[in-house]
Recover the amino acids of this structure.
């Protein structure tokens, strides 16, 4: 049973930073082809992708809204994916979700989400 647990959210002032973590269990990251992503969902809005790192080559990509401010990384030895968020703005306020896409079986897994609030 694959489980993803996010942590690291909280209240931060505009211009501040947070690092989110997503710890995976139920499998060993190094033995599966997995694309890792972070999404967010603000009240009244659709869930949107904010960062992705590919299984092949560890290539990261970001939408323009967070490019240059957010960085996704992974540590296969710890079965953990991170999202470093800098220069946070009120528009970044949302629940942030970790996602794992397994190429084997084409399955998606989601964490429960962690709240990020950017406010003075």
């Amino acid at each position: 049973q694959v489980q993803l647990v996010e942590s690291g959210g909280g209240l931060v002032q505009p211009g501040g930073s947070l690092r989110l973590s997503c710890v995976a269990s139920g499998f060993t990251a190094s033995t599966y082809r997995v694309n890792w992503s972070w999404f967010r969902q603000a009240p009244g809005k659709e869930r949107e992708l904010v960062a992705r790192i590919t299984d092949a080559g560890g290539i990261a990509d970001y939408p323009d809204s967070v490019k240059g401010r957010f960085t996704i990384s992974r540590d296969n030895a710890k079965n953990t994916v991170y999202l470093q968020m800098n220069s946070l703005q009120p528009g970044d306020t949302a629940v942030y979700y970790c996602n794992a896409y397994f190429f084997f079986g084409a399955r998606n897994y989601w964490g429960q989400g962690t709240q990020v609030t950017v406010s003075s």
Summary: The two ends are 40 Å apart (CA to CA).
